[in-house]
Predict the 3D structure of the following.
Amino acid sequence: MFNNFKSDYISWIVLIGLVLLLLEVSFFNEGLIFSLLASGAMVYFGRSLMPRMTGKILFWAGLFFFLSSVFSMMTFRFFLLAALIYILYQYGKSKKKPEVIVPILEEPASAEAPKETVVQKQPLFENRMFGHQATPPHPYEWNDVNIQTGIGDTVIDLSLTVLPKGETVIFIRNLIGNIKVFVPYDLEVVVRHSSLLGSAEVLEHEEDKILNQSLYIQTPGYEMAEQKVKIFTSSVVGNLEVKRI
């Protein structure tokens, strides 16, 4: 029962939060999107200009304005209130006398099903709101990449690892920052990239300016290759670079 309440509560909170965000952007705070994009651009360009003083000023000013815009949102305050109510509910439930549940045990079947063995591996990257991530500068074990990042660059060098046979997949969803992927010359590639504002350099193809566009680039021998990589990337503001190495 508690699990059902938790699931329904979160679903309703997300639904109400989305409605409030739509109303806030449409009627009460029409300049919110512009302020978030402008402060995000200040953070991005300030970070690219570091360690110069101009870059530091732009970065910290943009971060301040970005957080100020978020904290002043009616939707943000609603989520804070919802989280507080949920914490108080859990606290009150923990103070009550717990319900005693007596399990009913059944005789196991004559032939027991074998236990399934699972293998947990350490991912190469983590979801981060801020920060730069890159593969190690030495040989490493490959694991497929599926991450979401906020503000920062991501660099993947496939020349220092051994990829498995078949299709390798890389998913990167980025808010603000650059994405660089270095691939060996004998590896076939497919790249699907979408961006609101930025540029792209994928092998021999270059897009100096991307404005709310999507790209699809595929090398000629991709379909028949035994070893290949499929790269999915998306960003609000940032550049994509896929090069042979």
Remarks:
- Residues 2-28 form the longest helix (27 residues).
- The longest strand covers residues 227-244.
- The mean pLDDT is 81.
- DSSP finds four helices and nine strands in the chain.
